[in-house]
Design a protein that fits this description.
The protein is mostly helical. It has seven helices and no strands. The chain has helices at 3-21, 28-33, 37-42, 45-58, 68-78, 85-98, 109-124. The model has no long low-confidence stretch (mean pLDDT 89).
């Protein structure tokens, strides 16, 4: 594999991983600013987006994944706790802590969100 291709694959995979793990969508432009001028000639925003699409298609990825934080947001709105900063913060922190626990991998994201929500409500009230 050529060095040029390797740099493109590295940048694209880092951005894809960040999209899955970070609560905010990463900026391709900010990532490109970390590259040298020579690397920026090889790795463009258009190239990154094209490779990302190719990888997702090749892996037959489902982009409709809902994680625990999305379920939590829904539960908070339905129960009128979305404006209670203490509950929102605590439930979100619990979910973030749960991400590193392999024992919880067997649970659905909706279950982790529900447990975090109820624990936070119980603790705050």
């Amino acid at each position: 594999m050529k060095k040029e291709s390797l740099i493109l694959y590295a940048v694209t995979s880092i951005i894809m991983a960040a999209k899955m793990e970070q609560p905010l969508t990463p900026s391709i432009n900010l990532m490109l600013n970390l590259l040298t001028n020579a690397e920026r000639e090889i790795v463009t925003k258009r190239n990154v987006i094209a490779l990302e699409e190719k990888v997702l298609t090749l892996l037959n990825c489902n982009l409709l994944f809902l994680g625990p934080l999305q379920f939590l947001e829904r539960y908070l709105r339905l129960s009128n706790f979305h404006e209670n900063e203490e509950v929102v913060k605590l439930a979100s922190e619990i979910i973030i802590m749960c991400r590193t626990k392999i024992q919880l991998a067997e649970f659905k994201p909706s279950q982790i969100a529900a447990a975090s929500f109820f624990l936070a409500v119980w603790k705050v009230h």
